[in-house]
Design goal:
- The protein is built from 11 helices and 4 strands.
- It is α+β, with helices and mostly antiparallel strands.
- It folds into 3 domains: 5-49, CAT RNA-binding domain (Transcription Regulation, Sacy, Chain A), CATH 2.30.24; 68-166, PTS-regulatory domain, PRD (Orthogonal Bundle); 170-280, PRD domain (PTS-regulatory domain, PRD).
- It has a 4-stranded antiparallel beta sheet with strand order 1-2-3-4, covered by helices on one side.
- A hairpin with a 5-residue loop joins strand 2 (11-15) and strand 3.
- Helix 8 (199-217) runs antiparallel to helix 11 (260-280), helix 9 (226-235) packs parallel to helix 11 (260-280) and helix 10 (237-254) crosses helix 11 (260-280).
- It is elongated, with a radius of gyration of 24 Å.
- The chain starts with a strand and ends with a helix.
Length: 281
Amino acid sequence: MKVVKIINNNIISSLDDQNREIVVMGRGLGFGHKPNDVIDETKIEKVFRMDSSGEIKQLENLLSDTSIEVVELVNTIIEKASKQIEDKLQKSIYITLIDHINFAIERKRQNILFSNPLFYDVRRLYKKEYQIGKEAVAHINKVLEVDLPEEEAAAIALHFINARLGAEMPETITITRIVQNTIKIVQYYFSMELIDEMFEADYLVLHVKQLAERVLNRRMLEGHDEDLEKMVGAKFPGPSECVKRISDYILKEHGIKITPAEAMDLTIKIERVLTQYESEK
């Protein structure tokens, strides 16, 4: 393996056995080397392979200004997360997470306050990814001796959600905001607060998340049983009217009308939440 380009004393670019560009890392790996020198492979600690030449260039530019301590801890965080997340993570997670953590540390050092409006929704919607983010923040604070706030856990979680879903950050944020606003409509309509201890509330949040994904993909549930839909609407008038308001919100903000099948399912989920809420008052 030969040096193609020196990124810094610890990171260089090279070519693998299929002539694809890779980035390799190791303490002192690039020190004293120049292009075409043979790499001491015993010093290689990590090999980065991206999905495109564009991502390789992004990674090289990012790593040129990043300390090896940050790169090492990001690698540790991703390796640990990969064991907890069943889906395969996109390789671009290295780019987005290194960039985010660099920025978060710089913000903290400049005493710039961080506020994440999606904090509570991410914590509830994506519990596994949020826990990964929480552990990542603790690891960053310990290794780099900084004091990142817990809100950063939700921000880091969003990067893993994107890498798992193969979505872009704006799509993930849109899904989260649909859930956020839909739950607000339910809470406001019935003058109640959904708390984490309510298992029916968790089911509702999960259902609305799946609905939001279908809204974004413009693929609503089909199937039409008019008699059953009328019966559900008559039996649960409050939840049915609440669903109409949710439907109006989604139509106005996202230009898609939820189907009768979607409306009926959502009505039943809301009724179950109300039943549990009333029983626990």
